[in-house]
Amino acid sequence: MQLVLYDKCKQLETEELKEYMNQKMEVLIRAQNGEERYRESLGWLHVDEWAGEENIREITRHAERVRENGDILVVIGIGGSNQAARAVIEALHGDGHVKILYAGNNISSAYMKNIINQLEGKSVYINVIAKNFETLEPGISFRILRQYLKKRYGAEYGSRIFATGTRESKLHELCRTHGYTFLDFPDNIGGRYSGLCNVGLFPAAVSGIDIGSIAAGARSMEAELHNTYGEENTAFQYAAIRNLLYQKGFRLEMLASFEPRYQYFYGWWTQLFAESEGKEDRGLYPVTAKYSEDLHSIGQFVQEGTPILFETFLDIREQNSAIWLDADEVKDEFDYLNGLSMDEINYSAFCATLKAHSERFPCISLQVEELSEYSFGQLFYFFEFACYLSGTMLGVNPFNQPGVENYKGYMFEALGKYKYRSECNGKN
Questions:
Q1: Which of 397, 414, 409, 389 is nearest to 20 (CA)?
Q2: Which of 5, 231, 237, 426 lies 20 to 30 Å from 142 when distance is taken between CA atoms?
């Protein structure tokens, strides 16, 4: 993966970036070695800890149980519990043998009714994913869908439930009591960093995605980023650019590409950086754009609105899906496109956008060879490592999320959770 900075407006001088990276070199070295202060959050740092060959075989074995006679797997999870898997599955689609549906990411009865309607007449399995199993959305969906399974399959319903959680958690206890299959949600990996373990890989394997290639891509990126120093380290360079631009007053980073298959990857990226850096009144606000569609809407703001953002582009070098434009008898005034492929036109639109936007603010281009399982593994690891570096440069803990818990207290109070707990404790 290559990183190129386009900065025709001269917001960031080359020597300034080099000097900043020299000042922050210790951040890179500490991250490569794995810091003791973050030991309980760095299970993702070495891919083989949770996505080694033995792990891949075990995940595949469980996935084959579903694939043997399943039509649908409903993945119940929110945020980091489903973002990575969904990013890969929705982009690459697997082999279509098992359809993947997603629940537990909202509290809409209409959405749940639509999910249940799709299950009728199908062989159904569910995978509930929750690190502490106290989050409302997956808790509601799991209750509704396990009751659905029990009604359809009777006493054998438990064999159709896979629960991904931490050991000795409430979810683990439910597995022991009711016979659900338990999969480890590693204690030393936070939700938004969990794409390269059971959390992200099991649903992907059920869909027919080659999870071995995802792990291989991540492993190659780990080797590159742990053995490259200074400005040659692309994750370090990316983190440094982000922080320098933040210091210069930029407040938003927009991730964009001209490939709509990255739609759900955007959600994963947004959560990673928002939850990791948005604290202590600091941090870039991560936003995304789907080009070329969004050029016809927010493109106006990007080009001439309040100058608060810079852009990072995902540039796919090989598309492998050429569709050509040929002339016909209709005089539609698009004959200047005759003989071109849609890929060529799309790339021309990307280059033109990059040129226009970089005249106004800095733009980063991350060049990805192709959209594949391997490249998704590379991207997951690249951004996770870069986020670790960037958060450390910013001066925040990139692995906690205290602000996420604030609204939950008010919500649980309104729903009577604390009253229920005190009543239960009184009975005991």
A1: 389
A2: 426
